[in-house]
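**User:**
Everyone, produce one record:

**Assistant:**
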Amino acid sequence: MPTKSQKPSLRLYVCSSSIASTIQSKAGSTEGKALRTIQHLMKSMVESKQSNLDWLKKRCPIRPKKWHTEKVLRINEIENYRFYSRNSTKTYRGIISPLDIKGIQYAYAYNDESDITWIDLLNNLKRFKDIRHSNMTHEELIEHAQSDYNESRTVSKFGSLYFTTTGQHRMALCKFLDLEKVTVQINEYTFDQEKFNAY
């Protein structure tokens, strides 16, 4: 029996382990099938308490990186942002390194009121629960991150910096999965050197 000092997740684990032993003795029976269902539900309850990063670490070889704790930039925090064109001047498909993505363009959804790190962003992605429920493997996560589906992964380019515009969940995965290159839709903004020189 679990003691009062044991945490809920540990109690679930102990109980689940006990069920596993019972399942072995009743394999193939209706009772055994019911117990397997209960064990699966308990495992899901334990996993639901994990952060998105911890969940991802169980499926992928993720090592701590300096950028994990760096600030997710807002577009208006780009150096000399005022001298970039208000509208994109080029739109094209291109290959980029996910490491060059320094922020997100729809900041109101995540870091409008306070600064966040990339780990904060991953742990608070609004639809990441759908990825967790699908229980993807490492290979499936890579395939998912590289897919466009009905919404192209799009970034805005300011100089050498990129900001995710659409496909935030997939682009965040590209960064944390250490993908070297990805093909995305790019909206490029031009720096007005003449205006800058006259300022």
User: Anything to note?
Assistant: DSSP finds eight helices and five strands in the chain. The two ends are 74 Å apart (CA to CA). The first helix runs from residue 8 to 25.
